[in-house]
Amino acid sequence: METRDFIRLEDTYGAHNYKPLDVVISKGEGVWVWDVDGKRYMDCLSAYSAVNQGHCHPRILKALVEQAQKLTLTSRAFRNDQLPLLEKELCELTGYDMVLPMNSGAEAVETALKAVRKWGYTVKGVEDDRAEIIVCSGNFHGRTIAVVSFSSEPQYKAAFGPLTPGFAMVPYGDAAALEEAITPHTVACMIEPIQGEGGVVVPPKGYLQQVRQICTRHNVLLVADEIQTGLGRTGRLFACEWENVRPDVMVIGKALSGGFYPVSAVLASREVLDVFRPGDHGSTFGGNPLGCAVARAALRVLVEEGLVERSEELGNYFMGRLARIESEHVKEVRGRGLLIGVELKKEAGGARRFCEALQERGLLCKETHHTVIRFAPPLVVTKEELDWALEQIEPVLMMP
Ligand SMILES: *Cc1c(COP(=O)(O)O)cnc(C)c1O
């Protein structure tokens, strides 16, 4: 079978909810992937930051294989010998009191929403069924009905109604608007410290700190969705650390498993996560021993290989070099660590054609919001590999 055969099969039998680049990948190692013709590409998306540790990291692979040979799933009707260890290690690494494991990011977001609503009713004393949660325009928190209900992207929710009530939207980066939106029914405010899908949008300096203070002042929980920004991507374990902000609830996923398996989690204080009673919430696969063993290995790799520090150092280097490319198409280069967005001017004709030209030269990137090229290679990337990438990027940005 050739590339076009795979594409034809997928287009015939698969729902068309994505429009992928026409590259059919069959192998990955570190920052590199190979297509079915054997052509090699550098992965500059890292599966939306799920493969921060690099493709098929040998230590995570070993943990996966060893655990898969022993025990994969018990459901949480019974206990398993991996979940408690992951929970302890996550709490020790992050300083939170408790963990609730799920699978996909969207499920962890839903879990956080349930937790803060129940906290609102049982701890804060909000009137029954009146809880409000404040979110930001340009947000991306996943694709479930409740989550798309508060998206500002019309396509994400058009024709999927009726939508879920209980959410208020304020402009991202505007702390005063957030404070004004707080009512006696507000239980939480949920933010991304950098909006990844929104186009690598970095809020104004001091914003996260102001949001933290406002939430504290009004007894409103601060929920950070660090599914994409967390676990080293921005050069800190969590992007909130850039402003020394400690959210009450932290949502993680993606790189929590290094791309091997869907593992997500909600981290919070005992006051928040202790609202759940047996039967309140659950997931057949959430906290399964295979996912937990993989996540434990993925976290060890992150820490022991110094990937967080590496992301800061190489991110500074990469972003500096990108910013020095004198292209008439570039409006702005922004980001933190190895989460970098190159925003193109309107006249550039969209980011897609640049991504296709980069694909020709062996770099896989994905445009976000039509005008932004996101560069987010696995954190195991070397300086030499980034230099090679820059040699490809420069001529593409200089195209007419
Ligand atoms: C990817 C992402 C999600 C959703 O995660 P899924 O695993 O795709 O459900 C939620 N929030 C943010 C910030 C994300 O980047």
Distance from N terminus to C terminus (CA atoms, Å) equals: 36 Å
Give the proportion of residues in helices.
25-40%
Q: Which architecture of the largest domain would the CATH scheme give at its second level?
A: 3-Layer(aba) Sandwich
Bound molecules: pyridoxal-5'-phosphate
Q: H/E series, N to C? A: HEEEHHHEHEHHEHEHEEEHHHEEHEEEH
Instruction: Return the average pLDDT rounded to an integer.
Output: 97
List keywords for this structure.
single chain, 400 residues, alpha/beta, Aspartate Aminotransferase, domain 1, Aspartate Aminotransferase, domain 2, 2 domains, seven-stranded mixed sheet, four-stranded mixed sheet, 14 helices, 15 strands, globular, binds pyridoxal-5'-phosphate
